[in-house]
């Protein structure tokens, strides 16, 4: 199929505003009317690769999303589920950050339509409400713990069965350390920080030996007094999970082995 015919097929299936601009041998920039929320255009390239035509964003979509989100946030929890569902629904491949879709049997218009729809669906992760973001933080927190620590060595929603049979004083996770347990808390807001402080104080009164870790969604948004009280009773804190995941995993491993 000629380039003129491909452009006409793009216009027929996607919109009259679509046009192609050559950028070398077997490579064309595809201009569409579709935009990110900030007004930037989606980046789409039509290129020949290994004897076939391919639509690609050349890594632009994920790069654009990381202007507002940490890259680690895109690879776990609720956001990763949204991205994976979009890729699957529209047949798009994630090639280490590059979104790509092979054009099947000269179906250029259908391929561009699917590619654009998939990219737009992926950008939905930037529209998550604050409540959904908080939920994503908790999902990301659980994912880190459950991927890093074997099931036999962790207990979710732990309380002391002898001293607290009703479960009034909880730890988000209890990890079996070599010498003493490690209690880990997810801290998205003041209320959760206060509850963790009360629980750790009670464990201290009971004389329960443990090592404690607090992981904040955003420590900068926690009230000063609430944070000060928690700091008095917690052994180790991480100001955020996003961007600190490797440090969190490494510290948990070291705390369990200590």
Structure write-up:
With 258 residues, the protein is α+β, with helices and mostly antiparallel strands. The protein has 2 domains: 3-127, 2-Layer Sandwich (Yope Regulator, Chain: A), CATH 3.30.1460; 130-257, Trna Endonuclease, Chain: A, domain 1 (3-Layer(aba) Sandwich). 41% of the residues lie in helices and 21% in strands. The chain has 8 helices and 11 strands. It has helices spanning 3-13, 60-65, 77-90, 108-122, 130-148, 190-206, 224-233, 245-257, and strands at residues 19-22, 27-31, 44-49, 52-56, 93-95, 98-102, 154-158, 171-175, 182-187, 211-216, 236-238. Strands 1-2-3-4-6-5 form a 6-stranded antiparallel sheet. Strands 7-8-9-10-11 form a 5-stranded mixed sheet, with helices on both faces. The mean pLDDT is 90.
What are the key terms here?
41% helix, six-stranded antiparallel β-sheet, 2 domains, Yope Regulator, Chain: A, Trna Endonuclease, Chain: A, domain 1, alpha+beta, single chain, 258 residues
CATH class of the largest domain: Alpha Beta
Please state roughly what percent of the residues sit in beta strands, choosing from under 5%, 5-15%, 15-25%, 25-35%, 35-45% or over 45%.
Answer: 15-25%
Q: How many domains make up the coordinates?
A: 2
Relative helix content: 40-55%
Q: Whole-number radius of gyration?
A: 24 Å
State mean pLDDT (0 to 100 scale). Answer: 90
Shape: elongated
CATH topology of the largest domain: Trna Endonuclease, Chain: A, domain 1
Topology pattern, helix = H, strand = E: HEEEEHHEEHHEEEHEHEH
Kindly name the structural category. Answer: alpha+beta
Largest sheet: 6 strands, antiparallel
- How many helices? 8
Alpha-carbon distance between the termini?
66 Å
Number of strands: 11
Oligomer: single chain
Poorly predicted regions: none
In the CATH hierarchy, the architecture of the largest domain is 3-Layer(aba) Sandwich
Strand order of the largest sheet: 1-2-3-4-6-5
